[in-house]
Amino acid sequence: MSEPEVVTAPRPLLLADGRPAARAWSLDPALRHLNHGSFGAVPLAAQERQRELRAEMERAPVVWFPRLPGRLAEARAGLAGFLGADPGDLALVPNASAGASVVYAGLERRGGGEIVVTDHGYGAVTMGAERLARRWGGRVRTARVPLDADEERAYEAVTAEVGERTALVVVDQVTSATGRRLPVERIGTELRGRGVLLLVDGAHAPGLIAAPLEGLTCDFWAGNLHKWGCAPRGTAALVARGPLRDGLHPLIDSWGAHDPYPDRFDQQGTVDATQHLAARTSLDFVESTWGWPAARRYMDDLAGYAERVVGAAFTALTGEDARVDVGMPVPGMRLVRLPDGLADSRLTADALRDRAAAELGVEAAFTSFEGVGYVRLSAHVYNTAEDYEYFAERCVPVLGEWARAAARHRPRRPGGGDATIRAAGPHEAGPLSDLALRSKAHWGYGREFLDRCRAELTLHPEEVVPRRTAVAERDGRVLGFVTVEGEAPEGELGMLFVDPPAIGGGIGRLLLAHALGVARDLGFARLRLEADPYAEPFCRAMGAVRTGSVPSGSAEGRSLPLMTVEVGAG
Fold first, then answer.
1. Which of the ends of the chain has fewer CB neighbours closer than 10 A, N or C?
2. At residue 86, does pLDDT exceed 70?
3. What is the 3-state secondary structure (H, E, C) of 99-141?
4. Other CB atoms within 10 A of residue 246 CB
């Protein structure tokens, strides 16, 4: 468990007039709201303030918009104080992902530059880093941080991926799917000494962590005030330090484009910016009612209690300890492991979230990390111990039934016998490259030709994760592997190789079925592949259609079949 066990339920917080804290929000009482961390919840006081501002805007828009930049500058100063930032460093953006996009768009081209991310990174931010790396002609390197890694291990995992070509590192202050901290302070100090830029994704930090920017060395930081800070939707801050901030511009050009940073972000045409002006109302409401330090203590105590009762319920259900050590816990959030078969991918986790809301009356965060499903318990001041006791008593047994039903109805994998699919690790790059060469040799190619093919058949350690490499395995022996590359709508089946002793045993079909499933999850419409001429019949049998030919990268004058397989046909 991530914190000392909380045995006694904390007493619920009350409003000044003695009513339950939840009465200060407009949350539906017919639902149990156990997922503040995803979208936050706005108190009535801030909702009313935003309505007043919108009414003012609509009464006299020609008066409102010319005055808006000055009012936003004043709002920025107040929000900077809450975050522990310099007001001159802080620009207002819609969300943390938008802040990251501003940074990606504003950095000058660094030919061949590499970007380091972690396997805990938020998907949208990581995808932006991948696009930037392609524009640079570089690549993304993924630091694999074990879920239970303490500060030292997490620090070493990230910095180990930083090399001479690293231009930017992107690290979460608080991770979304796994609800843990990463040592951004130590990482920032180390990178500053190496001259490497650091972007900190602080989406969950404001409100959850007191003054999240104090003592933090970084070039860029982006955080949401509409999560734990309870500000209206679309309220976030981008903090940029140093001369590179002069190259940052809003994603929408407007008449403030020639203003200095951060003033240029205060003028965005006719964008409704009332959320930024009302944000301070939310922050001040919590401060004046309970005080932020007391609110954070309550959230943490309640999350610890929730972890105990929900974890005990799942443990009793499955017979396996459901508690999770996240290495560097944060206040207000805990992870509890779900039964096998639930939320084993992002898409199935989202589907479980929607089903739980519809059938169980619970808004909960179901997440996935490395193929394992979790429920991420998020507590705020309006939650009570009874919310989590209800989940443990009423929802956990139903989730257990859903897990058993999923196991009974899980379709057999096509071909491959009892082989299983798992993600490959960077340490397997060498053995997989050797397997690819053996598989190529199966078609009778000579040594000289195979030597010419070696480079294109080599998988480098830093490519394994970005190329979405998966292996087929039986009894600990790797039988083949596949890579799914590119972006929607059209991706690429980059490599698909089966070890010669396993050819004909259904492993190729199993790997291709897995690749199509991954492609569907990523929103691909089709996959293209450059097939070996000897493999073309297999590809046709699996539904691929030849669309042309391409020159071989290994043999001059030789061409390869260019084929496409529709993802929906898989």
1. C
2. yes
3. HHHHHHHHCCCCCCCEEEEECCCCHHHHHHHHHHHHHHCCCEE
4. 11
